[in-house]
Write a structure and sequence with these properties.
The complex is a heterodimer.
Chain A lengths: L1 H4 L3 H23 L2 H26 L8 H17 L4 H23 L4 H20 L10 E2 L2 H4 L6 H28 L1 H11 L1 H6 L4 H27 L1 E2 L1 H4 L2 H15 L5 H17 L5 H16 L3 H6 L23 H16 L1
Antiparallel strand pairs in A: 1-2
Helix pairs in contact in A: 2-8, 3-8, 3-11, 3-13, 3-14, 4-5, 4-6, 4-11, 5-11, 8-9, 8-11, 13-14
Chain B lengths: L1 E10 L2 E11 L4 E5 L6 H9 L6 E6 L2 E2 L5 H7 L1 E3 L12 H11 L5 H14 L15 H14 L4 E5 L7 H16 L3 E5 L3 H5 L4 E6 L2 E6 L1 H6 L1 H8 L2
Parallel strand pairs in B: 3-8, 3-9, 6-7, 7-8
Antiparallel strand pairs in B: 1-2, 1-4, 4-5, 9-10
Classes of the chains: A mainly alpha, B alpha/beta.
């Protein structure tokens, strides 16, 4: 068994499971009933939020606890464009992302003056301020919020099953776009620099990684996706309200839990964490508030055992990435100089002697 | 090529560098020696941009770079090793060097791969190519520091105590690597306690003591200086 796990077969099995998951997601509406589609839609949207928080906190060292700000702003923007502006529903979803990105610029100017714990608290303060501002919007029902008119809801499907499937597909498209675009980002020169920042920020700056530009890019990268997720969450809940749309528990605390138990600073971590979180939530739903009390110690125990989460534990046995973002050398041929080769040979001799 | 004008650095009441003037001509190899706490690493931090001087200016090719960020100085051609290595622990040796080639050396991914493989071979780390940097020994971490600096194809190479702990044979290999960098046109400033290594390559020596340069010039002349003997060599 140990031999099996420590060979590349474990990578193959992991990738096979991942592929099965993708096939399952792609065929979800044909396999699941309405409540199953609701749960899977929620799972995909939470995964979008987790991937974005992981990019910020895991790579760019922007440990924000205020990402619910952009989810809430996306929710309100979507509602406004769809219901009050009577815009095309798809365009309204896209506008939620655009508004979140626009808002990200001034928010970034404010919170990037802070670092570490101060940045975290600053981002939370910004999110709470925006929630209070949303509560003052009387057109949106003030503090108690407002439900989506039936006419607006029916644009996404006249029957409930049809609508759930429609929202499911939108969430799947968003997840696919987030996953593929973020993977491409991580495979680029920028991503290489971000991975270096994850491991040693000072060291990354010292070899030419522009820390400021990388952080700005990550922050502006995540904001529109969070806004889009906020729009789709509103479609699921069919209403906007400050405490629900700007919920720190649902859109930040749970997300931090997902990323931490799965493995911060990896691509696989949020996926694993998301699956574990949803399984725990489904099985612990009956015990009410105890479910929070159980989640906390689980995350603490996992982090104490392995700071890189469940994926960090698995990596002790799995020799490679399931979602490859790292670079590997090409075959050792065609190197530039004979001098290099002879120096390497002499160095190897020295090493073998010592 | 490199010119420091009246540079001082204070940390609160503690003055680490005081009105320091230093010029390094292109193609030269300047060895910097001095007792612990003399300000050598602070001097490197100021040249590389990791710290801003409290007073004075740093010029590279007649351009004032005093307030240029550390990552922009890499792109201007300053490569540096650290006395305490700063590896990217979960990335392989190959990726560590690639980061430097892509960002500091401004190379595309394909060119960076070739450059990384070349300098890893040059620095004798080829047998550790795929090893996570966090698993390397201190000696290999120092090699990695050198590989990262060389991968940037620096015009000015700052070496901070890379020969410490090496055997004679390893020191010979290291000198060959540094000579290769010099022959390819790099100007080198090297902080080192291993004097016999420095003497074999340095065109000039500067002795730092108490935040000021107390002697500089040809290595033999500097080492014969009575003040240097007193504060550094202890004779």
């Amino acid at each position: 068994m140990t031999h099996f796990l420590t060979t590349s077969y474990s990578v193959f099995v992991g990738r096979l499971l991942l592929a099965c998951g993708i096939v399952f997601l792609a065929t979800g509406p044909f396999l699941l009933d309405a409540s199953g589609m609701q749960v899977m839609t929620e799972f995909m949207l939470m995964l979008v939020l987790a991937l974005m928080w992981n990019l910020l906190a895991g790579y760019a060292d922007i440990v924000t606890i205020g990402q619910h700000a952009f989810v809430g702003v996306g929710a309100y923007a979507f509602f406004g464009f769809l219901v009050f502006g009577e815009w095309n529903p798809y365009l309204s979803v896209l506008m939620a992302g655009a508004v979140a990105m626009l808002l990200a610029v001034p928010v970034m100017v404010i919170i990037f003056r802070l670092r570490t714990a101060y940045l975290a608290v600053g981002s939370w303060v910004v999110a709470e301020t925006l929630m209070l501002c949303a509560g003052k919007l009387s057109a949106f029902g003030g503090g108690s919020g407002i439900s989506m008119p039936v006419s607006a809801v029916k644009q996404f499907g006249a029957r409930i099953g049809e609508r759930y499937a429609h929202i499911y597909w939108l969430a799947l498209v968003l997840l696919a776009v987030v996953f593929i675009s973020t993977w491409l980002l991580m495979r680029s020169a920028v991503g290489l620099g971000l991975t270096a920042m994850r491991d040693n920020e000072d060291g990354a700056g010292a070899v030419g990684v522009n820390l400021t530009r990388s952080r700005v890019l990550c922050f502006l990268w995540t904001a529109p996706f969070l806004g889009l997720a906020g729009a789709l969450i509103t479609l699921q809940k069919l209403r906007v309200a400050p405490p629900a749309s700007f919920s720190i528990t649902e859109w930040t605390v749970y997300i931090i839990f997902i990323v931490l138990i799965g493995g911060v600073g990896s691509f696989e971590g949020p996926v694993i964490g998301g699956i574990v979180f949803f399984l725990l939530r489904e099985y612990l739903a009956e015990v009410g508030v105890w479910h929070f009390i159980v989640l906390g110690p689980i995350s603490i125990v996992i982090i104490l055992i392995e700071p890189r989460g469940l994926w960090g534990l698995l990596r002790r046995f799995v020799p490679g990435d399931l979602i490859p973002v790292s670079y590997t050398p090409s075959a050792l041929k065609g190197t530039k100089t004979e001098k290099a080769r002879s120096l390497a040979a002499s160095t190897s001799d020295v090493l073998s002697q010592s | 090529m490199l010119k420091l004008v009246d540079v001082s650095k204070r940390f609160g009441a503690l003055s680490v560098l005081q009105n320091l003037d230093l010029t390094v001509a292109a193609g030269n190899v300047l060895g910097v020696i001095g007792p612990n706490g003399a300000g050598k690493t602070t001097l490197f931090n100021i040249i590389a941009g990791a710290q801003v001087p409290s007073a004075g200016q740093v010029h590279l090719d007649d351009r004032d770079i005093t307030h240029v960020k550390v990552w922009d100085r890499c792109r201007l051609g300053i490569g540096r090793t650290y006395q305490v290595p700063k590896p990217f622990t979960h990335m392989s040796v190959f990726e560590n060097v690639m980061v430097a080639a892509v960002h500091g050396g401004r190379m595309g991914i394909r060119a960076a791969k070739e450059q990384a493989q070349h300098v890893i071979e040059l620095t004798g780390l080829i047998h550790r190519l795929r090893t996570p940097a966090g698993h390397l020994s201190l000696l290999d971490l120092k090699r990695l520091e050198l590989a990262k600096a060389l991968a940037q194809k620096p015009r000015l190479l700052l070496l901070d105590e890379i020969a410490g702990g090496l055997t004679e044979s390893e020191c010979d290999t290291l000198l060959e690597i540094v000579k290769t960098a010099r022959d390819q046109g790099a100007t080198i400033v090297w902080i080192e306690h291993v004097l016999h290594a420095l003497r074999r390559i340095a065109t000039r020596l500067a002795v730092l003591h108490g935040g000021t340069i107390i002697s500089s010039g040809a290595p033999d002349e500097v080492l014969a200086d009575s003040r240097v003997k007193e504060v550094y060599l202890g004779v």
